[in-house]
Amino acid sequence: MATVVLNKGSFRFPLGELSMRVAVAACLAVEDVGVKASIKPPNDLVVNGRKIAGVLCETFNQAALVGIGVNCLQTTFGGDLLDIACSILQVTGHEVNPIVLLPRILNHLKETLADEQWEEKLRVRLIRKESGPASSSAGQPCEA
User: Fold this and answer.
1) What is the CATH T-level fold of the domain 2-110, as seen in this structure?
2) 57-74 pLDDT tens trace
3) How many Cβ atoms sit within 10 Å of the Cβ of residue 89?
4) Contact, 70 vs 1, CB < 8 A?
């Protein structure tokens, strides 16, 4: 979907928090369009155990490169992805153009990067290893 270039010198938080802050922002954006996703560390957003989005953060000199990918309009996934991926269209039944979703992600990212209470938003969306819901629903239909 997009790569956002940020000045890591402007962060008022440890760099190690960046990936989870981005995941929270992406999660909030897909919630805006009717998808209840969870965050599966280190970098996935899942719905009923199926990956709907992912984030990847890398640094280069003073830049933080934030890659965000969201499955928006796919009607099917083949091969190895059949039981492990889903899209907003599959979950909600309506089309969400990536160009419409991207500003929502960017707005939530701006807010989450500055939010001192961001960890509460993470906590309520986080899949913990011991709970296992991400692995327990493989093969289940993709639903909100």
Assistant:
1) BirA Bifunctional Protein; domain 2 (3.30.930)
2) 999 999 999 999 999 999
3) 17
4) yes
